[in-house]
Amino acid sequence: MENVILIVKGMSCGHCVNSIEGNVGKLNGVHVVKVYLNDEKVDVSFDSKMIALKEITDVIEDQGYDVALSKSAKDQNCH
After folding, report:
1. Which residues 6+ apart lie within 8 Å of 12 measured at CB?
2. Is 27 left (phi over 0), alpha (psi -120 to 50) or beta?
3. Three-class SS string for 31-55?
4. For 32-47, how does the pLDDT look when each residue is reduced to its tens digit (9 = 90+)?
5. What's the number of CA atoms in the CB half-sphere (13 Å) around residue 58?
6. How far apart are CA 36 and CA 19, in angstroms?
7. Do the Cβ atoms of 44 and 32 come closer than 8 Å?
């Protein structure tokens, strides 16, 4: 299981949250997706043997959002 935090620009409301969580959440291999609107972050847990991170970011970008950066959750805890 891999966990990444994506920085996503362009999210502005509850519809954005529902759209991203719904579309990414239904991808085969994605276990958990949580959007943090105020922080412009999307936390995704997925099986990297079943789906590539690029496939996840492509789905978000296809909805009109900009994925500016991705970091593994492990990197977030190293500060």
Report:
1. 37
2. beta
3. EEEEEEHHHCEEEEEECCCCCCHHH
4. 999 999 999 999 999 9
5. 6
6. 13
7. yes
Over its C-alpha atoms, the chain yields an Rg (Å, rounded) of 12
Tokens of 15: 């519809």
What integer pLDDT is reported at residue 73 of this predicted model?
A: 56
SS3 6: strand
Q: Whole-number mean pLDDT of the chain?
A: 90
Nearest-angstrom CA–CA distance, 68 and 52 = 17
Instruction: Calculate what percentage of the chain has a pLDDT beyond 70.
Output: 87
Considering only CA atoms, which of 22, 73, 28 is closest in space to residue 50? 28
Span 18-33, pLDDT tens digits: 999 999 999 999 999 9
